[in-house]
Amino acid sequence: MNEEYVKETNIIERSQEELDIELIKSIIKTKQDLKDSNKNYEFAEGELIDYYLYQIKANQSKLNYLLKKAKKNGLIIDMIKEIEIRKEQYNQDIEAG
User: Fold this and answer.
1) pLDDT tens for each residue of the chain, 97 residues long
2) What is the rounded CA–CA span in Å between residue 75 and residue 19?
């Protein structure tokens, strides 16, 4: 007989503050992805032009969605908060090695 093993994991509920920080981090990452796609588009040739246009459109749509979600949640995303989160992420990346 075949026995199936199911790994049990505990679901950890996150606080609203943790969810808000995750949303802000997603917005920052998407902004950077959009910036990178625009930069790559400037130097694209041939078929890559279509690829980067698709990336730009996809990132812009994602950013619009995330910003609407942030506004709905009552978040105000300002440059200070963005810089603090970037600094925190940078420090975590350095510690992770």
Assistant:
1) 567 777 777 777 888 888 888 998 899 899 999 999 999 999 999 999 999 999 999 999 999 999 999 989 888 877 667 777 888 888 888 888 7
2) 11
| pTM for the whole structure | 0.71
The amino acid that residue 20 corresponds to is D
Q: Is 47 exposed, middle or buried (0-12, 13-18, 19+ CB in 10 A)?
A: exposed
Q: What is the 3-state secondary structure (H, E, C) of the chain?
A: CCCCCCCCCCCCCCCHHHHHHHHHHHHHHHHHHHHHHHHHHHHCCCCHHHHHHHHHHHHHHHHHHHHHHHHHCCCCCCHHHHHHHHHHHHHHHHHHC
Domain ranges of the chain: 32-91
Closest CA to 82 of 66, 59, 61, 96: 66
